[in-house]
Records
---
Amino acid sequence: MQRALGRLLVILPALMLIVATESALAVLAVDNATGPASPRFHRQLRTALALLERSDEPHIRLLYAAVVTAPGTITFRQMTDDRATWSRDGDPNRGHTQPSDSRPKRQGRTKPTNATIFIPESAVKPDSARWKGGLLVHELVHALDLASGRYNRDYTVRERRAVFVQNIWRHHVGYRLRVSYHGAFATMDYQFASERGAIAEYMNFILRRNDFPEPPPAVPAGRPAD
Ligand SMILES: [Zn+2]
C-alpha cells in the first residue's frame, strides 16, 4: 500500500480521478488533462473494470489481476472530438495505448513504463458492440505489457498478444472472433490454442514473458478461416 499511496500523491495534483485502488498496488486513473472527462465515462469505466474483475472467464480475471498489480501506472483517457485523443492514423474511434515516456513504441520496453489507454465511451458501455468486441480488453493487454516492462519491439507480436486475449473475451460473450489485425496479418493464435487445449499456456506468455509462440500455419486456400 505504501507504493500505491506514493503514486496517488504524485497523481492527484495532476487532477486525475482515481478509479480503482483499494486493494491494488497499481493505480488506474482517468485523465482530465484537456478538460473534465464526462462523469458518465468515468462511471461506465468503473463498472466495466468491475465486470472484468468479476468475469466468469478465468483468463479475463487473470488479466485484470495482472493489470492492477503491475508496477506501472495505467491512465485512461476518453476519446472525444479533441484530435489529441485520436490515434495517429486520424481515426477518432480507434482505441490506442501510448507509453507515457516519449520514446517510440518500436524500441519496446523491458522496464515498467506508465501507459495511457485512449478509448471511446462506447468501449466501456456494457452491451454495446464495442464492449462485446473487446476493445477495452485489447488495450489492457498493451497497457499491461508497458506497465510490466514486457512490451515487445515487434508490433505484430504485441498485437497478436492483445488479439489473443480479445478473442478469449469475444468467445466468452459470443462475438465473432478476429482473424486478422485490420487485414495486415493473421491473428489466429486463440483459434489455434483453443483447438489444442493450450489457452493457459499461451496466457502464460502474456502474464510472464514479452514474446509469443510462433504464429500458427496459414489456413490452406479454400478452407474458411473460421
Ligand atoms: Zn492493438
---
Amino acid sequence: MNNILDYTLEDLERYFTDIDEKKYVASQLFDWIYKRNIYDFSKMTNLSNNLRDKLSKDFTINLPITKKILKSKGTTKYLFELSDGNLIESVIMEHGYGISACISTQIGCNMGCSFCQSGKTKKIRNLQVSELVAQIMFIESNLGKKISSVVLMGIGEPFDNYENVMKFVYIINDKNGLNIGARRITISTAGIPKFIKKYALEDIKANLAISLHAPNDTLRSNLMNINKAFSLKEVMSAINFYLEKTHRRVCIQYIMLDNINDSKKCAIELAELLSGLNIYVNLIAYNRTSNSIFKPSSEKRIECFINILKSKGIDTCVRVKFGHDINASCGQLKANFESK
Ligand code: SF4
C-alpha cells in the first residue's frame, strides 16, 4: 500500500480527479495530516464515509520509530528506525529566532568526503519522500512546536536523491502542508553540476548551499571524491548558471580543517575563485570524530582566514558549533549506535 506522505498536493489532486472527486479534497486531506496531525482516515470527518473507506484501502500513513533522542544545550538529535530496519538521524537546533532542523536525505552517502563519518558508509538507498517528511512531522510533534527552518545537510547528498527531495521541499513549503517558507529551506549539495542547473529552473525558491571546502582541484579531490567526477571548473560554471537564472544568493560552505585548507594561500585562492559572484561564505568549524585524521582549525587561523576573505570583498560568516557531546556531526550518532 502507498504511504500518503509520499504525495505532494498536486499528486493528490490528480488522484482525486482520477476517482471523480473534487480537486479541493486534496487540500482537506493535507489539512488533516499536516495541520491537525490526524493520521487515521476514519477521523477525517469532512470527507464522505465512502471516501474515508477508499483512502484506508489505498493508503497508509507510516511514521518512523524513534530509537534514541539525545539532548544537549540547544541541540537535540533524533535517531529513527525505518520500516526496513535502516537507521537515519536528524538534528534540531534551537536559536533565539526559532528552531532549525537538519534532515538526512539518504541512508549512507556515496560522495566520499574524507572528513565525514557518513562518507565512510556507502549509500544503501535513497530516502522516500514520506521518510523525509516524517522527520519533520515527528520532531514537531515531539517538541510541540513548529520548525521554522529546514536544512538538508544531514546524511546523504540531496541532489543524488533529486526527485524525492524536490517533492519533500514542495510538501513542507505548501501552505496546506507544513507551511515552511522557501527562504527558510536550504538544500546543501557537494556539487553535482547537472542538478545545480536543473534546480535553477525549478519553481521553488529554497536556498542553495554548495560545499566547496577547497579552492583548487588538487586539494578538493583529496577531500571530496566527487571532485574527481566533477571538477571545480564544472561546479563553478553550474553556480554561475544558477546565479544567472535565479538572481538568488548562493551560500558557499567551507569546513575549516587545521593545516589542510585553512592557510592564507587557500583564503586568497578562494577569494579569487569567488570574486564578483553573488555569494557569501559560511566557514564551518569541524566537529572532530574519535577516529578522524583531521583536526579543527584554531580560532586564530579561522580569524585570519575570515580577515583575508573580507579584505577581498567576500561576505563571510562562521557557523557556530553545536552538540559536540551528542555526536551532532552527520552520521556520528548512527555510527555509535550501530557499533554498540
Ligand atoms: S559531507 Fe555530506 S556529501 Fe560528503 S560524504 Fe558526508 S554526507 Fe555525503
